[in-house]
């Protein structure tokens, strides 16, 4: 097979630097701002494009919602030769100090992702590459985007059920945002010897759900995502340019 089975990504010829996002439409919008972009694969929720940003070849792929499915994409991107992955997502804030539209750059993630516990013992960390964190920080500052660095809670279930969530405990332990894939990305990257980072746009406060019902389609969020696309692409190309530096 010349293409990989789950995503239909070609086995060879992909750039080494990838931006991954949950929403296939977001992937298409990112591809539209690249130079010379074209779709290289489309299967299930996985839509993949290549193009260049500031002269640097990049991949853009969607991974859908949730860690287990996202790991299928991360596996196949790695098999196709991708070595650096940045995720650009959306997340709920866990503190009133972070506003809608702000960025959170995830230094590490709580592994409540529903998949990595089947891959590696639970004590194994989910951490970003420090140079990815700093590249995202610098790119956010260059774009004047309000950004916070810290821990995120990656949780497999989007909506609560009947079980009590350890929300209060994580808030007290200074976890600042909640989303659904970053810990899977970080664990996958560490296990494979790849480089990963992530930035999320805040689309509401996940603690005070009754005050701000979940609505990621508000202008404050969509405009921030548009700006975050450029932040993430700038960070990705900065990492590509610095790829030869010592660890
Ligand atoms: O905006 P994306 O990248 O999809 O990220 C967040 O949005 C989805 C939930 O609606 C989950 O995938 C979560 O992680
Ligand atoms: O998982 C998510 C993603 C976006 N916003 C949330 O509140 N949770």
From TrEMBL:
<dbReference type="InterPro" id="IPR000845">
    <property type="entry name" value="Nucleoside_phosphorylase_d"/>
</dbReference>
<feature type="domain" description="Nucleoside phosphorylase">
    <location>
        <begin position="17"/>
        <end position="236"/>
    </location>
</feature>
<dbReference type="Pfam" id="PF01048">
    <property type="entry name" value="PNP_UDP_1"/>
</dbReference>
<protein>
    <recommendedName>
        <fullName>Uridine phosphorylase</fullName>
        <ecNumber>2.4.2.3</ecNumber>
    </recommendedName>
</protein>
<dbReference type="InterPro" id="IPR035994">
    <property type="entry name" value="Nucleoside_phosphorylase_sf"/>
</dbReference>
């Amino acid at each position: 097979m010349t293409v990989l089975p789950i995503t239909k990504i070609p086995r060879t010829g992909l750039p080494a630097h990838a931006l991954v996002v949950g929403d296939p439409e977001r992937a298409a919008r990112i591809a539209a701002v690249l130079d010379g972009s074209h779709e290289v694969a489309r299967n299930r929720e996985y839509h993949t494009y290549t193009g260049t940003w500031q002269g640097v070849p990049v991949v853009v792929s969607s991974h859908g919602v949730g860690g287990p499915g996202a790991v299928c994409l991360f596996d196949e991107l790695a098999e196709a030769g991708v070595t650096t992955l940045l995720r650009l997502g959306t997340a709920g804030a866990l503190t009133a100090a972070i506003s809608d539209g702000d960025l959170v750059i995830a230094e590490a993630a709580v592994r409540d992702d529903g998949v990595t516990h089947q891959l590696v013992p639970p004590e194994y960390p989910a951490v970003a590459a420090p140079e990815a964190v700093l590249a995202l920080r610098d790119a956010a500052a260059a774009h004047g985007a309000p950004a916070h660095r810290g821990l995120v809670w990656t949780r497999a279930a989007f909506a609560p059920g009947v079980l009590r969530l350890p929300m209060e405990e994580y808030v007290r332990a200074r976890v600042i945002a909640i989303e659904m894939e970053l810990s899977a990305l970080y664990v996958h990257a560490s296990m494979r010897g790849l480089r990963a980072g992530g930035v999320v746009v805040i689309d509401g406060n996940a603690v005070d759900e009754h005050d701000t019902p979940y609505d990621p389609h508000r202008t404050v969020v969509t405009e921030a995502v548009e700006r975050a696309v450029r932040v993430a692409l700038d960070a990705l190309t900065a990492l590509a340019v610095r790829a030869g530096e010592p660890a």
